[in-house]
Structure formats: structure tokens, C-alpha cells
């Protein structure tokens, strides 16, 4: 059974930090690109960051670049999102995503999400 289990969300003051974790199981973690995607209240999904296994290339949305850091530990089958200098507009449910493309097939999995609230 494929599982992506996020943790680490919570309430934090503006300027604070949080680290999200996403523990994966049930698929070959090393083969997958891992991403974080968020959904703010009343808004659609917004891609936040991705990390690819080959030399761990990372990509970030402009809104979080320089504040967020995505990383992965293949031995632990876990992806992380370190969020610094948090702003109220970072408030959202954060979802972990795993994606693998081979030929014309796309394999994609989602976690259940973890709430991040940035408020004083």
C-alpha cells in the first residue's frame, strides 16, 4: 500500500520556522521526484518546491525562494520542507506529492496534508 504521511505542521508566529516531514512507503522512493504543494483557504493548489533524485536538483516557487528549503533522505524515504521567515500568506494545508514518469505512464501519489498556520 502506498502511503505519504506528512507531519510537522502547526501554529507559528510570523518570522518563525517550521520543518515539515513526509514519510513514504509502498513504492520505490528513489525513483520519484518529490514535491510540496499547498492550498490556502479558499484558493487552489499552489506548487511550492520540488526535488529530483538525480544530484538532488531543487526548484522553488518565487513566493518561497530564499525562505524554504526542500531536501530528501532516500535511506529514510523521507522528504522535508524547512520553512523559515514564515509569513501569514504561507498559511495553508501543505501536501506531499510523489511523481514518476516513464514513457507515457505517470505514477503520482499524494499525502493527506498538514496544516500550517502563520499568525500572531
Provide an overview of this structure.
- Helix content is 0%, strand content 56%.
- The protein starts with a strand and ends with a strand.
- By secondary structure, it is mainly beta.
- It has strands at 3-7, 10-12, 18-25, 33-39, 45-51, 58-60, 68-73, 78-83, 92-102, 105-110, 114-118.
- The strands form two sheets. Strands 2, 4, 5, 6, 9, 10 and 11 form a seven-stranded mixed β-sheet that branches. The chain has a four-stranded antiparallel β-sheet with strand order 1-3-8-7, with no helix packed on it.
- A hairpin with a 5-residue loop joins strand 4 and strand 5 (45-51).
- The chain contains no helices and eleven strands.
- The protein is globular and about 45 Å long.
- The model has no long low-confidence stretch (mean pLDDT 95).
According to DSSP, the number of beta strands is 11
Query: Main sheet, how many strands, which sense, barrel?
Result: 7 strands, mixed
Rg calc: 14 Å
Gross morphology is: globular
Count of helical segments? 0
What structural category do the secondary elements indicate? mainly beta
Mean pLDDT: 95
Strand content: over 45%
The span between the termini is 40 Å
Amino acid at each position: 500500500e502506498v502511503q505519504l504521511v506528512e507531519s510537522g505542521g502547526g501554529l507559528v508566529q510570523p518570522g518563525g520556522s517550521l520543518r515539515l516531514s513526509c514519510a513514504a512507503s509502498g513504492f520505490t522512493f528513489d525513483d520519484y521526484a518529490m514535491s510540496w504543494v499547498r492550498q490556502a483557504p479558499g484558493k487552489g493548489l499552489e506548487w511550492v518546491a520540488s526535488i529530483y533524485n538525480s544530484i538532488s536538483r531543487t526548484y522553488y516557487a518565487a513566493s518561497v525562494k530564499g525562505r524554504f528549503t526542500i531536501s530528501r533522505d532516500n535511506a529514510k524515504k523521507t522528504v522535508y520542507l524547512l520553512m523559515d521567515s514564515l509569513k501569514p500568506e504561507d498559511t495553508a494545508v501543505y501536501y506531499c506529492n510523489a511523481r514518476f514518469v516513464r514513457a507515457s505512464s505517470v505514477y503520482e501519489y499524494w499525502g493527506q496534508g498538514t496544516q500550517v498556520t502563520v499568525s500572531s
